[in-house]
Amino acid sequence: MVCVMQKMARVICQLVNGQVDMTVTTHSDIILQHMNNMISLSERENREELCRRLGYGSDDLLSREQIKVYQIFERQEGGCWQRIPFVHRPVPMKRDCQGILRGQVTVEAG
Q1: 3-class DSSP assignment, residue 8
Q2: What is the separation of C-alpha 37 from the centre of its chain, rounded to a whole number of angstroms?
Q3: How far is Cα 92 from Cα 105, in angstroms, rounded to an integer?
Q4: What string of DSSP letters covers 19-67?
Q5: pTM
Q6: How far is CA 106 from the centre of its chain?
Q7: Helix, strand, coil fractions of the chain, as percent rounded to 5
Q8: Per-residue pLDDT tens for 51-76?
């Protein structure tokens, strides 16, 4: 399942770089992790060497300015959303006791 999610995230990155405006909603932290990794990779000085070693092209990389991320969650008074910045550390997500994401995440490009 991880491999499929990483492939989906890679396609999303390529669509964003192809100037496709979109909104993607997911419960997958794997997709967010991959996109975060592509932002981190794009900011590295040796990104060309790393991309070559890892099998990525320039259309796989993202910049922070290309996307916005929101976490959607429920409150007693109704639904709520919160913008989440992409950072070089894991994005904090609310999880229940079984490790399932309680809020869905929306990624907006464009």
Answers
A1: helix
A2: 8
A3: 12
A4: T--EEEEE--HHHHHHHHHHHHHHT-TTHHHHHHHHT--GGG---GGGE
A5: 0.72
A6: 9
A7: 40, 25, 35
A8: 999 999 999 999 988 988 887 777 77
Distances (CA, A) of 10 to 19, 81, 89: 15, 25, 19
Residue-wise pLDDT for 4-14, tens only, equals 888 999 999 99
Structure tokens at 35: 């996109």
Q: Are 45 and 24 in contact (CB under 8 A)?
A: no
Q: How far is CA 44 from CA 8, 20, 28, 40, 66, in A?
A: 23, 25, 25, 7, 17
Please tell me the distance from the alpha carbon of residue 103 to that of residue 78, in angstroms, as a whole number.
Answer: 13
User: What gap in Å lies between CA 99 and CA 79, rounded to an integer?
Assistant: 21
